[in-house]
Amino acid sequence: MDTTHSQLRSQLEAQLDRLVQRVGKIEGDLRSSHDNDWAERAIEVENDPVLESLDSSGRLELAAIRSALVRLDEGTYGTCSKCAKPIDVRRLKAMPTATSAWRA
Q1: Where are the domains of the chain?
Q2: Burial zone of 78 (CB within 10 Å; 0-12 exposed, 13-18 middle, 19+ buried)
Protein backbone atom coordinates (compact mmCIF):
# COMPACT_ATOMS: atom_id res chain seq x y z
CA MET A 1 0.00 0.00 0.00
CA ASP A 2 1.41 3.39 -0.92
CA THR A 3 1.88 6.31 1.45
CA THR A 4 -1.21 8.16 0.21
CA HIS A 5 -3.43 5.15 0.88
CA SER A 6 -1.85 4.71 4.33
CA GLN A 7 -2.57 8.34 5.16
CA LEU A 8 -6.13 8.04 3.89
CA ARG A 9 -6.63 4.84 5.93
CA SER A 10 -5.49 6.68 9.07
CA GLN A 11 -7.85 9.55 8.26
CA LEU A 12 -10.75 7.14 7.67
CA GLU A 13 -10.07 5.21 10.88
CA ALA A 14 -9.92 8.41 12.94
CA GLN A 15 -13.15 9.62 11.36
CA LEU A 16 -14.75 6.23 12.05
CA ASP A 17 -13.82 6.44 15.74
CA ARG A 18 -15.28 9.95 16.05
CA LEU A 19 -18.49 8.96 14.31
CA VAL A 20 -18.99 5.81 16.37
CA GLN A 21 -18.80 7.95 19.50
CA ARG A 22 -21.11 10.62 18.09
CA VAL A 23 -23.72 8.14 16.86
CA GLY A 24 -23.59 6.34 20.20
CA LYS A 25 -24.26 9.58 22.04
CA ILE A 26 -27.13 10.45 19.71
CA GLU A 27 -28.64 6.99 20.21
CA GLY A 28 -28.39 7.46 23.97
CA ASP A 29 -30.09 10.84 23.72
CA LEU A 30 -32.89 9.39 21.60
CA ARG A 31 -33.46 6.49 24.01
CA SER A 32 -33.30 8.55 27.18
CA SER A 33 -36.54 9.11 29.01
CA HIS A 34 -38.00 12.56 28.70
CA ASP A 35 -38.33 15.03 31.55
CA ASN A 36 -41.53 14.91 33.65
CA ASP A 37 -41.99 18.67 33.32
CA TRP A 38 -44.30 19.17 30.33
CA ALA A 39 -42.48 22.29 29.08
CA GLU A 40 -39.10 20.56 29.21
CA ARG A 41 -40.59 17.46 27.59
CA ALA A 42 -41.98 19.57 24.74
CA ILE A 43 -38.51 20.98 24.04
CA GLU A 44 -36.91 17.53 24.20
CA VAL A 45 -39.51 15.98 21.88
CA GLU A 46 -39.12 18.92 19.50
CA ASN A 47 -35.43 18.04 19.18
CA ASP A 48 -36.05 14.35 18.39
CA PRO A 49 -36.41 14.81 14.59
CA VAL A 50 -33.08 16.65 14.51
CA LEU A 51 -31.42 13.88 16.50
CA GLU A 52 -32.99 11.23 14.25
CA SER A 53 -31.67 13.00 11.17
CA LEU A 54 -28.19 13.27 12.69
CA ASP A 55 -28.33 9.58 13.61
CA SER A 56 -29.36 8.60 10.10
CA SER A 57 -26.69 10.69 8.38
CA GLY A 58 -24.08 9.44 10.84
CA ARG A 59 -24.99 5.84 10.08
CA LEU A 60 -24.74 6.46 6.33
CA GLU A 61 -21.32 8.02 6.80
CA LEU A 62 -20.23 5.09 8.98
CA ALA A 63 -21.26 2.66 6.24
CA ALA A 64 -19.33 4.64 3.62
CA ILE A 65 -16.20 4.70 5.78
CA ARG A 66 -16.40 0.99 6.56
CA SER A 67 -16.86 0.27 2.86
CA ALA A 68 -13.79 2.36 2.01
CA LEU A 69 -11.75 0.46 4.62
CA VAL A 70 -12.88 -2.86 3.11
CA ARG A 71 -11.83 -1.63 -0.34
CA LEU A 72 -8.43 -0.69 1.11
CA ASP A 73 -8.10 -4.21 2.55
CA GLU A 74 -9.15 -5.80 -0.74
CA GLY A 75 -6.88 -3.63 -2.84
CA THR A 76 -9.72 -2.06 -4.81
CA TYR A 77 -9.64 1.32 -3.07
CA GLY A 78 -9.13 4.20 -5.48
CA THR A 79 -10.69 2.37 -8.41
CA CYS A 80 -13.89 3.74 -9.91
CA SER A 81 -16.83 1.40 -9.34
CA LYS A 82 -18.40 2.54 -12.63
CA CYS A 83 -15.54 2.53 -15.13
CA ALA A 84 -12.75 0.68 -13.22
CA LYS A 85 -10.31 3.54 -13.88
CA PRO A 86 -8.22 5.03 -11.07
CA ILE A 87 -9.85 7.75 -9.01
CA ASP A 88 -7.69 10.87 -8.96
CA VAL A 89 -5.77 11.13 -5.69
CA ARG A 90 -6.96 14.74 -5.27
CA ARG A 91 -10.55 13.49 -5.24
CA LEU A 92 -9.70 10.80 -2.71
CA LYS A 93 -7.98 13.31 -0.46
CA ALA A 94 -11.02 15.59 -0.63
CA MET A 95 -13.51 12.73 -0.28
CA PRO A 96 -11.83 9.55 1.03
CA THR A 97 -15.04 7.52 0.70
CA ALA A 98 -15.43 8.25 -3.02
CA THR A 99 -16.35 5.23 -5.13
CA SER A 100 -16.37 6.87 -8.52
CA ALA A 101 -14.01 9.04 -10.49
CA TRP A 102 -16.72 11.59 -11.22
CA ARG A 103 -19.42 13.14 -9.17
CA ALA A 104 -22.80 11.84 -10.31
Answers
A1: 3-77
A2: buried
